[in-house]
Amino acid sequence: MRFLAILTTIFFAQLLYSQDLVVKGIYQGDNIYVMNPFSPTGVGFCVYQVLVNGQPTHDEIHSSAFEIDLSVFNLKIGDPVTIVLKHHEGCKPKILNPEVLKPRSTFNLESIKIDPKNKKLIWVTSGELGSLPFIVEQYRWNKWVKVATVKGKGTPGIHTYSVNIHFHSGLNRFRIKQVDYTNKPRYSPVVTYKSNQPPIKFKPGNGKRVSDKIIFTAKTDYEIYDYYGRLMKKGYGKEVDVSDLPKGTYFINYDNKTEIFIKK
C-alpha cells in the first residue's frame, strides 16, 4: 500500500509540474523532428509523452532529438493535425521543422477564364495541400489592385472557384495569386477582356472645384488620395460623398484613369 501511495504521489506530481507544447497544422506527408533537452532534474529528458490528434505515439522519445512518425496515424494529405508535447516544467522542447505543417501553395491551375455575360472570373484548380486564400487582382491605374479574396478548399481534388468582377472601359486584365508561409507569391497567367462600354467621366470634371459630391456617368470602382498620397476613400458606385474631406487638391482613380479635383 505504501508503495502504491508513492507511485500515486509521483504521478500527480508529474501532472502538477508539467506543461504542454501544442502545435496545429495540416498534414502534408512529412514527419516532425523535435529537439528534446534534459529534464531540469538532470534525470531523463524534457518530453515524457507525445499526442497526435489525441492519440499517444509509440516513437522513441527518450533522447536529445526524436522523430514523430505521422504516417502511422492514417492521415490523408490535407487533414488537420494537432500535436501535443507533454513536458516537464523548467525545460522546453523545440520543433525543428514546424513549416511542414503550414499550408503550401501547391495548386495546379487547370483553367482560368472571364465570363463577360455574368461578369465573373472563373478558375479551376487541382493539387491543393492546405487551405490558403486566392487573391484576385485587376490591373488598373497602372498597378495591380486586389478586388476579391476566396478561401481555397485545400484538398487535392478538382475545385472550381468564381468571383464577381467589375469591368472598366477598354482592355481589362485579371490574375489570381496565392502566398504561403514563404511569402513568395505564385501567380496565374493573366486573362484579358476588352470592354466596349464607353469611358466614364465625372462631374464637375478634371481640376474643377467640388463642394460635397462627385457624380460619375456610370458605376465604377474608385479611389481618392490626398496630396500626400494617403488613401482617403475607396469603393464602387455612381456617387461619392466628399463633404467630409478637408479643403485641398485630391487625386481620383476611377474607370481606367487618374484625374484631380479640388475640394473647396
List the helices and strands and how they pair.
Blueprint: H1 2-16, E1 18-26, E2 32-35, E3 47-52, E4 55-56, E5 65-68, E6 80-88, E7 94-95, E8 108-115, E9 120-126, E10 133-140, E11 143-151, E12 159-164, E13 170-178, E14 186-187, E15 191-195, E16 202-203, E17 209-210, E18 213-226, E19 231-241, E20 248-254, E21 257-263
Parallel strand pairs: 17-21
Antiparallel strand pairs: 1-6, 2-5, 2-7, 3-4, 3-6, 8-9, 9-12, 10-11, 10-13, 13-14, 13-15, 16-18, 18-19, 18-20, 20-21
Task: Explain how this protein is built.
This protein has one helix at residues 2-16; strands at residues 18-26, 32-35, 47-52, 55-56, 65-68, 80-88, 94-95, 108-115, 120-126, 133-140, 143-151, 159-164, 170-178, 186-187, 191-195, 202-203, 209-210, 213-226, 231-241, 248-254, 257-263. It is mainly beta. The strands form five sheets. Strands 16, 17, 18, 19, 20 and 21 form a six-stranded mixed beta sheet that branches. It is built from one helix and 21 strands. The longest helix has 15 residues, at 2-16. The model is unreliable at 1-16 (pLDDT under 50).
What's the gist of this structure?
The chain has 264 residues and is mainly beta.
